[in-house]
Amino acid sequence: MRRFTWVVALVMVCLSVVVSGCGLSRKDAGSVVKELDGTMSKLSSYHGIGQMTLKTGQEPQEYAVEVCFQAPSYYRISLTNAKKDITQIVLRNDDGVFVLTPHLNKSFRFQSDWPENQGQAYLYQSLAQSIIMDNERQFVSDEKAYIFDVVANYQNGSLARQKVWLDKKNLAPQHVEVSDQNANVMMVVNFDKFEFGTKFDKDYFDMQRNMTSWNLKSLPTMAQGSGAASAAGTHDTTHSNESTKGAAASAGTGKEAAAGNGADKNNGAAASTDNKSTANTGSGSNGAASSSNGAAANGGSTNGATSGNTSAANGSAAAPGTNKGTTAGAGTDAQKQQSFGIIEPRYMPTGVKKQDVTEIKLGEDKGVMLRYSGKYSYTLTESRPQAQTVSLLPGDIMDLGFTLGVVTGDAKKTLTWTYDGVEFRLSTGDLPPEEMIKVAQAVQGEMGK
């Protein structure tokens, strides 16, 4: 009997140890937030790959997303619409914030502290801060992730809350769902890979490298670091460095030949861009388009950003036998710029109807202007600029989900953005910012149809 009692006591002690151990391993929201705050304080770099789905229009828009960060403030975000074969790159470096459309050799430059003043559902800092700052956060966990339900702090006021899945092993983001006030999921970001401590090439965040090397599978890539990069990635990095350096050497221009790299920094305003194409494309040297005194080629339209045409051959080696391909590509782009049709957004705010459509002239470029009236009044101007258009007016960046736009003006505001070579200007005196975003996203959903 005494032996039986001893065995029972031993079993009870073992069970209590197991139960207490399980309790210690089950973290509450406070301990996870404290750990997340520590991760943020020592964040040096990261690289994530995934998909983003926007459900703001009649049809979901899907994008492949690649996001890279290097402390203190270098960012590179690549957004690719595979269905339409369109890639745009948002870049931040010491020269400012750039929106690049490499396959059309287009670049817009902003002077902004983006993304510090705006949240982005695909940026780790935005997700972490939304969790840390929400004292009324909701918290649950499953086998592999901590799940937070918090207030969404985004520029688009219609986005109210978000759920964030963080990997239990290292607090890396796995999945994000952003909802509106009616709990409808409007945006989903799903990460296939997310790694901390990534080592990037020295020129990884350079504007010219991203413009000239966007279509090479090995570019841009990361150098091997912290065991994150694979052997294949290391090989690609070496190849990319040789290609980039060789391209610059062959052109004989280096960084000085980079479109927009000759731009001076202007405090609070976008600087002018001086593009000079010197590569032999069979058509001689292209004249540089520049701006002075803030005079825009579009007849004074408030653009709020510096835009420029960067030659595909600029800063890259023009190997024998490649001129025909370059010229043919330029011809195709030129033909595409001549005509694009009218792109009408299906979405209109309640109480608004289309008034008329007018053909207009913006400098040397043809365009169309759609007018809407009713509860809100606004115009939507569409054009394909063939020449460089520069505006030195300061503006505020607006996140449209699929790209960045710039808002200028006070009483009457103009939202300007480009996509696949088409420049859009949405001008209004009373349309709320969240409605401006919805119209822009509806326009993008109609492109390529």
UniProtKB/TrEMBL annotation:
Low complexity bias (residue ranges): 225-235, 243-334
InterPro entries, sorted: Sporulation_related (IPR052944)
Region Disordered: start-end pairs: 224-335
PANTHER family per UniProt: SPORULATION PROTEIN YDCC
Official protein name in the record: Outer membrane lipoprotein carrier protein LolA
